[in-house]
Amino acid sequence: MEKTLDVQGMSCGHCKASVEGALNKLDGVEEAEANVATGKVNVTFDEAKVNEQALKEAIEEQGYDVQ
Amino acid sequence: MEKTLDVQGMSCGHCKASVEGALNKLDGVEEAEANVATGKVNVTFDEAKVNEQALKEAIEEQGYDVQ
Predict the structure, then answer these.
(1) A13 — contact with chain B (CB < 8 Å)?
(2) Residue A38 and residue B39: Cα distance in Å, rounded?
(3) B3 vs chain A: nearest CA distance in angstroms?
(4) B21 touching chain A per CB within 8 A
(5) What CATH architecture is B2-66?
(6) Does A15 lie at the interface with B, CB-CB under 8 angstroms?
(7) Which of B8, B10, B14, B64 to mutate to test the interface with A (most CBs of A within 10 A)?
């Protein structure tokens, strides 16, 4: 499944790396791509292994708000 | 010696950490404090061991411009 999340507060390449890194660490996430300019985070994941709530929590743990 | 540098482009806590970390790695730097809101980086250092040019280069290597 592919889903785009709206994330507030990503301001630089470090932020991008921390969000993508946190998502990629989750079992079931196949691809994560964060766009700092738009705040969009595109995630491809296996719904049998991980859900949208877990994706959001992983991002929030890095200190960013998910809309 | 204490010196305040003007740094462009620090936007978040990761930026602060990367600038301070790069400065603290230099022999002769006693203290480094970056303020993301103002762009001011305050450095206390031993002039016998390190000079302002080396401080600026360390910051620039992290991807920020020093005025």
Answers:
(1) yes
(2) 24
(3) 26
(4) no
(5) 2-Layer Sandwich (3.30)
(6) yes
(7) B14
Contacts of B18 in chain A (CB under 8 A): 14
Asked if residue A31 lies in contact with residue A37, where contact means CB atoms within 8 angstroms, the answer is no
d(CA B19, CA B1): 19
**Residue B27 pLDDT:** 98
Rounded Cα distance between A54 and A50, Å, is 7
How much is the average pLDDT of A16-28? Answer: 98
Where are chain B's structural domains? 2-66
Chain segment B4-57, per-residue pLDDT in tens: 999 999 999 999 999 999 999 999 999 999 999 999 999 999 999 999 999 999
Alpha-carbon distance of A64 to B60, in angstroms, equals: 27
Tell me how close the Cα of A1 comes to any Cα of chain B, in angstroms.
31
| A30-64 per-position pLDDT tens digit | 999 999 999 999 999 999 999 999 999 999 999 99
